[in-house]
């Protein structure tokens, strides 16, 4: 269950980061409040996941997959450019997350 909650927290982390970019292009109270709301949801989910996972494991997976997800969404949604070296290092992050998951105590 903790891994599922952590997965939802990763999605929320990606949405939070993208909402910051969106809020920077808008000038409304809604655009400003969405990142704030998502940050509370995001932190709450991470804290909930940490009840069943070590803090280091949960944080490493959350930040790693969050970073890769934000880069991927930036490419897909905003046409941002990514170099071959960046793609390679993103692959290393994913390998690290998989290794962290596989080696985590049951």
Q: Average pLDDT, to the nearest integer?
A: 93
Distance between the first and last residues' Cα: 12 Å
Q: Tell me about the biggest sheet? A: none
Low-confidence stretches: none
| Rg over C-alpha atoms, rounded to the nearest angstrom | 15 Å
Which percent range describes the beta-strand content? under 5%
- With helices defined by DSSP (H or I, 4 residues minimum), what is the helix count? 4
Compute the number of strand runs.
0
Structural class of the helices, strands and pairings? mainly alpha
- Shape type: flat
Helix percentage range: over 70%
Write the H/E string, N to C: HHHH
Q: Kindly report the oligomeric state of this protein.
A: single chain
User: How many separate domains?
Assistant: 1
